[in-house]
Structure formats: C-alpha cells, structure tokens
Design goal:
4 helices; elongated; three-stranded parallel beta sheet; alpha/beta
Length: 150
C-alpha cells in the first residue's frame, strides 16, 4: 500500500515513548504520523498500571518538565497517589500514582487525536524506505482485527 501524504516525522509505536515523541513533533509544527498495530492498544498498560515510583519517577518528572503528556494524563486518571519511602530521606522518596488504565489509554488517545498535525495510523511497519541516504517512507502491512464466532 502506498500513502501519498508527506510527513516530516514518522513514529513507529504508540506506547509511552512513541506517544510522547509524536506529540512533541506535532507540537513543534511538524506533520507527524504515528503508526500502531492496533488503535485500541494506544497507551495500553498491561500489568502494573502505575506511573512514577523509585525506579522511573525521575523520568516522569523530566518528561513533565519538557511539556510531555504522561504526567498530565496521570493527573487526570489516577486512582491513588502515594509518596513512597516517606519515613526516609528526600533522596529516596518517590511519588507513585496508581492509574485507571482504561481511562489513561482513552485520555492519551484523545490527546493524540486532538493534536493538530498528528495523524494516527493503524498498520505494522515492516521496513523503512531509504533513497540516497534519506528516509523516504515506510512499508506497511495492514492489520485488521477479526472476530471468530464460537
């Protein structure tokens, strides 16, 4: 399949990093496409629906400081927020939010859909097309969901 629309940035994947990259590029005025194999799995949190904590809390704060979406959406969709290690010194304390994972995924998708210059595409990127040392596009394998009747 050949798409004729030109993009400045193509992001492969709509997990945490892909969403932040696509939003950042579009907010900077670049025509951006974000490809995911399943539109229903944008920002899906599989097992432990938490954001922050001692291991990744600093990363969330850095994303937030750079104008990212993760912290804003976490604030909209948290079920519980807790300061971990509060009995210890500030160097080991960390804020962790338990998230409503369905609401989080829905809000992240809405943020993407409402961002000008950002298109969300469903398809599996199989190859990066390079001509004369420059990326010219991607080769896709389209993915459809099928349901079986039992």
């Amino acid at each position: 399949m050949r798409l004729t629309k030109a993009y400045d940035v193509i992001v492969v994947g709509a997990g945490h990093a892909g969403i932040e990259a696509a939003l950042a590029a579009a907010r900077m005025g670049m025509r951006t496409a974000c490809f995911t194999t399943n539109l229903d799995n944008i920002a899906m949190m599989n097992c432990n629906p938490s954001i922050g904590g001692p291991a990744k809390g600093h990363l969330v704060k850095e994303i937030d400081a750079l104008g990212g979406q993760m912290g804003l959406t976490a604030d909209q969709t948290f079920l519980q927020m807790r300061l971990l290690n509060s009995g210890k010194g500030p160097a080991v304390q960390a804020l962790r939010a338990q998230i409503d994972k369905r609401a989080y995924a829905w809000q992240m998708r809405l943020a993407m859909e409402r961002t000008p210059l950002l298109d969300i595409k469903q398809g599996m990127v199989e190859d990066i097309l390079v001509e004369d040392g420059r990326v010219r596009g991607v080769a896709l394998r389209l993915v459809w969901s099928t349901k079986r009747r039992l």
